[in-house]
Each structure stands twice: as structure tokens, then as C-alpha cells.
Amino acid sequence: MKLISFAVPCYNSENYMRRCIESLLTGGSRVEIILVDDGSTDHTGEIADEYREKFPNIIKVIHKENGGHGSGIMAGLAAAEGIYYKVIDSDDWVNEESLQKILDLIESFMKKGNPLDLIVCNYVYEHEGKKPHTIHYRGIFPRNRQFTWSECGHFDMTRYMIMHSVFYRTELVRECDLQIPLHTFYVDNVYLYSPLPLIHTIYYCDTDFYRYYIGRSDQSVSEANMIKRVDQQILVSKIILEKHDLIEIRKTRPKLYRYMINYASMMVLISSLFLSLDGSPEALQKLEDYWKYIRETVPALYPHIRHRSLAGFYCHTNKFVRAVTKRAYRIVSKIYKFN
After folding, report:
1. 268 — phi, psi (to 5°)?
2. What is the spatial distance between Cα 166 and Cα 81, in angstroms, rounded to a whole number?
3. Cβ atoms 69, 190 nearer than 8 A
4. What CATH number matches the domain at 4-214, 3.40.1260.10, 3.30.420.140, 3.90.550.10, 3.40.50.880?
5. How high is the mean pLDDT of the chain?
6. Measured on CA atoms in the order 202, 261, 285, 331, is the torsion positive or negative?
């Protein structure tokens, strides 16, 4: 029985995928590693096949036409046999000691016949040429025990869960009707958000498991690329805004509602911010149209997003207001070391 299925979507990853794979192999026979070659034009596919030949009981390889990162996630999910599903970007890696801790944790709950719905761990920004920066959840989640949403504390803007910090039970990801568009960046947010209403039991493992590499100029999270691909960010935010009936969730699970509405608001903030940073007439028209869409499509959520979140500061097309909010973004990103 495989405890974790690690899916590694790969596209032209020959220069860095080995470090990722080698770190995952330390999980031994308790894990499976699904290497998804997303139509690469370099030696990515050959490297994947090489590892499959060496470790046939651990590694699976999928060769497919290029469909983008989200299609790699979905292909991995379809092939996964592990109790938990975890996506690892091919330029990232994991801490070997932390991996053993998480595997032991899963094994202990499986022996009790009580598998957790969600396991959360820390992740570390590995900035090129800079000191690593850890994102943890101390003070938000109880540690070293099972808990529910009702026991969660306040998430500040730099410590929302992201795909890199979560292990979902595979069965729940399949149940949540996950829909990820092809050839679209930033879909990891859809992956993170979609299963949340199905999550009831949570465990926070306070260990620095995931190493998130930041530094390549071609990364989707570089500021220049986020401005260039802002239409894809808007598409992702719309999928999230329309995915669940948050007002219904609020009736019985108020803390889950609070997390989800704040997460959705953050997605609106990011889209609005990069339209504002672009500043072209076309971008500012998109900004107006975007907020009109929110007001008309999700009117029950609009008051919170517009008046109770930071997203409301970035809905303006006025030049002076945009200059002030742009300066605020530069200061905050420098302090908290995020892109």
C-alpha cells in the first residue's frame, strides 16, 4: 500500500528534475512518484524513463501532449494509488527528514483506522542568492493532534495554505469535482481551494517539508510574467469565486467560510494588483470590467471583497490611488519576501 502519491508535472525540466526526484525517493516503498512528461522537447522524458527503469516499484511515468501544469496534476491524480495525493513542482524538492515524519504520521493514523482528510506542513522559499524564508502555521493550527476547522485561528495575509503546504486524501480530491483548465498558469489555487468543504479532520505537522525554489526568470510567479499572464490569473479567480456556495457554508461552518472568503478575496486582490501595476488603458478597462463581473456574478460575496478585504484598495483606476497602492505593495513584498 502506497501512503503518498507524489505527482511531478514536468515540462522541459531536464536541468533540475533530478534533485526533485532524488529527494522523493527517500520515501522508499511507502511512496509512489508519478512523473508526468507534459510534451517536453528536451530530455525530460528520457530522464523520467531512466528513473522508472531503476525504480519500477516506486516510479510511474506518463508521457502526454502538452496541456499545461493543470493537466499534469489531473493526469497524476488519475494514476494515483496512494492514500494521499501531493503535487511537487519539478524545480522544487523536499526535506528528507520531514518526509519520514509525515509518512510515520500517516501510518500511525492508518493503523487506527482513522485517516486524516488534510495534513498541513511548512514550506520554505528558497530564493536564488537569498536566505531561505520559512512559512509556518504556528498560532493558527493546533500542533501534534487532530483538529477541525472550528479550532483554527486567524490566517494573516502571508500564511494562507498553498498547494505546497497540503497533503489531501486522494479520495477527497477525486470527489470534489476538480476542474482545471488546460494551458493555464496559477491553477494550483483551484487545486487548493476545490476540496476544502470536504475537509473535516486536519493535522498540522510542524516541519519544513517543502522547498519552494524562486529565482528562474521564466517562472510563472515572477512579477513580469504575472503581469503578462494576468488574464489567466483572472480566469482562475473566477473559477474560485463560482466554485462553492459560501453563504451556505457560512450557516454551519463559519470558520471554514471565513477562510474561503478571505482566500477568494486574496485571489481578487492579486488579479486587481497586477492589472493596476500594468497601468495601460487596456488593463484599466479590464480592471473595471473585472469588478463589474464580481458585483453582478457573486453579489452576496461582493460586499466582503470590496469593503472588508485589501482587494478593495486595488479596484480603483484613479492614477493617484494606484500610485499609493503600488508603493504599499512594494513595501509589503520587501518585508515579507514574497513575489
Report:
1. -65, -40
2. 18
3. no
4. 3.90.550.10
5. 94
6. negative
pLDDT band for position 290 (cuts 50, 70, 90):
very high
Q: How many CB atoms lie within 10 A of CB 339?
A: 13
Return d(Cα 51, Cα 40) in angstroms, integer: 16
Burial class of 84 by CB neighbour count within 10 A (0 to 12, 13 to 18, 19+) = buried
**pLDDT, tens digit, 9 for 90 and up, residues 45-83:** 999 999 999 999 999 999 999 999 999 999 999 999 999
112, three cell numbers: 487506527
- Decide: helix, strand or coil at residue 111: helix
Q: Is 206 helix (H, G, I), strand (E, B) or coil?
A: strand
Q: Determine the Cα–Cα distance for residues 158 and 135; give it in Å rounded to an integer.
A: 8
| Sequence-distant contacts of 53-60: CB under 8 A, at least 24 apart | 55/25, 57/29, 58/25, 58/28, 58/29, 58/31, 58/32, 58/33, 59/21, 59/32, 59/33, 59/34, 59/35, 60/32, 60/33, 60/34, 60/35
Closest CA to 321 of 272, 286, 282: 272
In 10 A of CB 130, how many CB atoms?
A: 11
C-alpha cell at 225: 510574467
The C-alpha atoms of residue 309 and residue 152 are separated, in whole angstroms, by 19
Tell me the pLDDT tens digit for each residue of 126-185: 988 889 999 999 999 999 899 999 999 999 888 999 999 999 999 999 999 999 999 999
Q: Which three cell numbers stand for residue 176?
A: 470534489
Domain positions in the chain: 4-214, 223-336
